[in-house]
Amino acid sequence: TPARDLAVAGIRTTIVDVPTVRKHKLSQTSVTAQSYVIVQARLANGVEGIGEAATLGGPRWSEESVEGIKATIDTYLAPALIGQAADRFVTAGERLDAAAKRNNAAKAALETALFDAVGKTLGLPVAALLGGAVRTRFPVLWTLASGDPDQEIAEAEAKLGARLHRTFKIKIGAQSPEADLARLTRLSTALADRATLIVDANQAWDETVARRCLPRLADLGIALVEQPLPAWNVAGMGRLRAQGGLPPLLADECVFTAHDMMGVAQAAAADAVSLKLVKHGGLVGLRKVAAVAEAAGIGLYGGCLLESSVGAAAHLHAFAGLRELAWGCEHFGPQILTGDLVTEPLAFHDFAVHLPEGPGLGVTLDPDKLRHYARS
Ligand code: MUC
Ligand code: MG
After folding, report:
1. Of 10, 167, 245, 361, which has the highest C-beta tally within 10 A?
2. At what angle do helices 283-295 and 258-266 cross, to 10 degrees?
3. Beta carbon of 86 within 6 Å of any ligand 1 atom
């Protein structure tokens, strides 16, 4: 087989469960292990590319679960790519969309594996395939989500001391707004002069609660509020922003597609958008959403779903070529896992996560670790 034969020859999917260092509590779910589907795509030239579909607490953050992702890839999506040229990313995306509606995390994992395989074949990083890297270091935040303020303050102190993180995202909405405000008051008193604090409500509040609580978050110096309202209530986010005197709002679950992004722009419903492969269906889709946001003057934030170094590397390659990434990124995922899936996990130092070097994603799947964390 010629070394440049980029036809997709085979696709393998593996469900893995990797325990986290502590319980991670969101408004709608809590996890003690992160579950992913790892995709291995083999080309006719023998090169293998990898990708990852992340979930958070089963089908509760979005509608996709690892069980559903694996079944959809094996039954519908992989057959649409077999025999196709791996470097025709847009055509591959079209074929995936024809084979299955939505299923964005599944599609993103497949497209990532194609990018990795093509990059490895050509000796180019994925960022180069996407137009070239503007940056190789990304300021990275840490999420405080145990729900116990004493533990959260101690955790933040340790991260500050180790020069790993100085922006913290606090997960709210699992308890009453009053209880969260008391917790945030404690955190901001302990940390505010040394750290930037943002919050993520994961859709927990309604418009009335948000109207009452957002000014108090502004008083506490909270720099950004992520998805305070349900994903459907884009108009409500627009009304909140029109009220003024509130922290900037970050759109997360309300923006999956470029069309969603356009709707948020038209409703003036967000100051920034969280970009994630699981929402946008791949690196090409992520860059499309980013382009719509840029056109509307909406800032870019490098979002995550607690990916391992595989999925995090894919995001960094997609973020690397953005002209502006005003809000930095949150790819702390590799650091919250008790183990990783690659031979050399992503590097974290000086308050940043660093773009791995080398062709493709720049990370190598460790077969022993894959076997170790694979669901039996
Ligand atoms: C989310 O909604 O942003 C990302 C970081 C984190 O702690 O939770 C996720 C999902
Ligand atoms: Mg969020």
Report:
1. 361
2. 20
3. no
Q: Classify domain 8-123+368-373 at the CATH topology level.
A: Enolase-like; domain 1 (3.30.390)
| Cβ proximity of 134 and 162 under 8 Å | no
Handedness of CA 147, 149, 150, 151 (dihedral sign): positive
Q: What confidence tens digit (pLDDT) does each residue in 174-203 have?
A: 999 999 999 999 999 999 899 999 999 999
305 ligand 1 Cβ < 6 A = yes
List 39's β-bridge partners, or say none. 13, 51
Those residues whose C-beta lies under 8 Å from the C-beta of residue 146, and which sit 6 or more positions away, are: 22, 23, 24, 25, 152, 155
High-pLDDT (> 70) share of the chain, %: 100
| Residue pLDDT, tens place only, 329-375 | 999 999 999 999 999 999 999 999 999 999 999 999 999 999 999 99
Token pair belonging to 15: 């469900």
Report CA-CA distances (Å) from 28 to 173, 201, 202, 228, 255: 8, 9, 7, 13, 18
Fold of 129-366: TIM Barrel (3.20.20)
Separation between Cα atoms, residue 39 and residue 51, nearest integer Å:
5
Domain map of the chain by residue range? Answer: 8-123+368-373, 129-366
Give the helix/strand (H/E) hosting 119.
helix 104-122
By annotation, the residues acting in catalysis are 171, 330
Q: 287-303: per-residue pLDDT in tens?
A: 999 999 999 999 999 99
pLDDT in tens, 97-137: 999 999 999 999 999 999 999 999 999 999 999 999 999 99
Q: Quick check: CB of 64 below 6 Å from ligand 1? A: no
Paired tokens of 201: 């409500």
